[in-house]
From TrEMBL:
Gene3D superfamilies for the chain: Neurotransmitter-gated ion-channel ligand-binding domain, Neurotransmitter-gated ion-channel transmembrane domain
Name of encoding gene: Gabrr3_0
Presence of keyword Hydrolase: no
A GO-annotated cellular component: postsynaptic membrane
Membrane association type: Multi-pass membrane protein
Molecular function per GO: chloride channel activity; extracellular ligand-gated monoatomic ion channel activity; transmembrane signaling receptor activity
Residue intervals passing through the bilayer: 62-85, 97-116, 128-150, 245-262
The species this protein was found in: Todus mexicanus
Descriptive protein name: GBRR3 protein
Domain called Neurotransmitter-gated ion-channel transmembrane: residue spans: 69-159
A Pfam family reported for this protein in Swiss-Prot or TrEMBL: Neur_chan_memb
Alphabetized SUPFAM superfamilies for the sequence: Neurotransmitter-gated ion-channel transmembrane pore, Nicotinic receptor ligand binding domain-like
Major localisation: membrane
């Protein structure tokens, strides 16, 4: 009711006019410091009015967000790199892993947005989450490129080999794509052997061939454990090889820059 012509407000002892309990604490913030100040507020109809202010400097508890946001986002990004070590012909495994990590990152981002104030500017946590989401998304795109180039390479190889007696002669890696198990490279396998296994009505000769093939398959599965590393090295693509180094390196540099700038 009284403007500056009628009433003047001020802090008598400045910051010393304020006193608080040392044991006061907040659930989400640390109270760094507080200061007293004064100012004027203008109302067009009545004039200027004195105002007293107390300014609080707060620091957020970061450990809560590390557990709920940053650590899960880091783990999802590192989990998306696992696909770089999976056989490039294991389409269901790599696609499902990529889609799962993308959906998980979307869930984390949605949860953080719901718990934060709805502001129009970009927050530091938004920068981190969107960058992490970009890494996960690029890992899915990376496999799309690997799968496409692998298909082109296989088509070129099939054209070079041509047809022999109306059947294609395929190597161990291609045979693995048909029946799901590893085959030795020194053994010739054709498409007819795989199609015969899927037929419901089998002749005695075909049944004998299937039983022999099953016995051979069991032997190969036993020797597969010692050859996993060699199989992965033989079946990986050059893009996967570079991705195993580029993705982690860039992500580490981003984390160093982020934690040094915002924290």
């Amino acid at each position: 009711a009284y403007n500056e012509d009628d009433l003047m407000l001020y802090w008598k002892h400045g910051n010393k006019s304020l006193s608080t309990d040392e044991h006061i604490s907040l659930s989400q913030f640390f109270i760094e410091e507080f200061s007293a100040s004064s100012g004027l507020a203008f109302y067009s109809s009545t004039g200027w009015y004195n105002r007293l202010f107390i300014n609080f400097a707060l620091r957020r508890h970061i450990f809560f967000f590390l557990l709920q946001t940053y650590f899960p986002a880091m783990l999802m990004v590192m989990l998306s790199w696992v696909s770089f070590w999976i056989d490039r012909r294991a389409v269901p495994a790599r696609v499902s892993l990529g889609i799962t990590t993308v959906l998980t990152m979307s869930t984390i981002m949605t949860g953080v947005s719901a718990s934060m104030p709805q502001v129009s500017y970009i927050k530091a946590v938004d920068v981190y989450l969107w960058t992490s989401f970009l890494f996960v998304f690029l890992s899915v795109i990376e496999y799309a490129a690997v799968n496409y180039l692998t298909t082109i390479e296989e088509r070129k190889q099939l054209k070079k080999r041509g047809k022999a007696s109306g059947m294609y002669s395929i190597d161990a890696v291609q045979a693995m794509a048909f029946d799901g198990c590893f085959h030795d490279t020194d053994m010739d396998m054709d498409l007819t052997g795989f199609s015969d296994r899927c037929e419901e009505s089998e002749t005695p000769t075909q049944a004998a061939n299937v039983s022999n093939a099953d016995t051979t398959r069991l032997k190969r599965k036993r020797s597969l454990k010692g050859n996993v590393g060699r199989i992965i090295l033989q079946n990986n693509h050059v893009i996967d090889t570079y991705s195993r180094v580029v993705f982690p390196s860039v992500y580490i540099v981003f984390n160093l820059f982020y934690w040094g700038l915002y924290i």
